[in-house]
Design a protein that fits this description.
Elements (H helix, E strand, L loop, with lengths): L1 H4 L3 E5 L4 H12 L3 E6 L2 H10 L6 E4 L5 H15 L4 E4 L15 H22 L9 E5 L12 H21 L5 E7 L8 H5 L1 H9 L9 H12 L10 E4 L7
Length: 249
């Protein structure tokens, strides 16, 4: 895998922490050239530092801001000439709300980041993607495959990502650009809803997983990098669940 990732230019959104950061570090170890972005300047800079600094690029990027995106993509293309892979990892994790308690602001925030953000980045980068070898990897969730009580808006965004990505696969496939999706389950990151809620919520997640533990960001990163590699060259429009065996209870 390392030989075909080496020197490839990879744009990562949401790289300032969690799965985005773990993926950046793995790609750096494999010799990729990274465009590390996140709306959190401190997280972005820390990921850049962990990846050794140059020759990588780092920049603050809000995936809901089209002007911001245009500037950053122009900088990346000016520096590297093209983009081989895009990891659309920026997203907002859910807060448990009954529909009667959901605000318009919460709805708009999740839709704008989790769905429109992927659309914005995709639309802006298509013309610069390497034909024949390029790929997108988008982040959905197990909540994009099965519903969860109290997560109606989050589920809506993650179901949308799967539909959007499968349409991307059909449209971009003839250009030799693949699109695949990762659907993580209960991953131990600082923004995971259970981690935020506390140990009781974490235990409930662990108990619901057949492997008896939460996953790690690094375990998701392994799959993301595989989907970018030539080993996955005939995967297009696939949705890969990374959930440790969620119990159907």
């Amino acid at each position: 895998m390392s030989s075909d990732i080496k020197r490839k230019v990879v744009l990562i959104t949401g790289a300032g922490s969690g799965i985005g950061r773990a993926t950046a570090i793995k790609l750096h170890v494999l010799g990729a050239i990274l465009a590390i972005t996140d709306r959190d300047i401190f997280g972005t800079q820390e990921t850049y530092r962990l990846c050794g600094g140059k020759p990588h690029y780092w920049g603050v990027l809000d995936v809901t801001n089209k002007d911001d995106i245009s500037i950053r993509i122009a900088e990346i293309v000016s520096r590297f000439e093209h983009i081989d892979h895009v990891f659309n990892c920026a997203g907002i994790n859910p807060t448990t709300y009954a529909l009667t308690d959901t605000s318009d602001e919460y709805f708009d925030s999740l839709m704008n980041v989790n769905v429109k953000g992927v659309y914005n980045i995709t639309k802006e980068t298509i013309l610069y993607m390497a034909k024949g070898v390029g790929s997108y990897v988008n982040v959905s969730s197990i909540c994009g495959l099965r519903p969860k009580n109290g997560f109606a808006i989050y589920c809506a965004t993650k179901y949308a990502i799967i539909g959007f990505s499968k349409s991307m696969a059909l449209e971009l496939g003839p250009m030799g650009i693949r699109t695949n999706v990762v659907a993580p389950g209960y991953i131990d990151t600082p923004t995971n809803a259970a981690v935020v809620e506390g140990q009781e919520a974490v235990k409930a997640m662990v108990d619901a997983t057949s492997l008896g533990r939460m996953g790690t960001a690094e375990e998701v990163a392994d799959v993301v990098v595989f989907l970018m590699s030539k080993e996955a060259r005939y995967m297009n429009g696939s949705v890969v669940e990374i959930d440790g065996g969620i119990k159907l209870i």
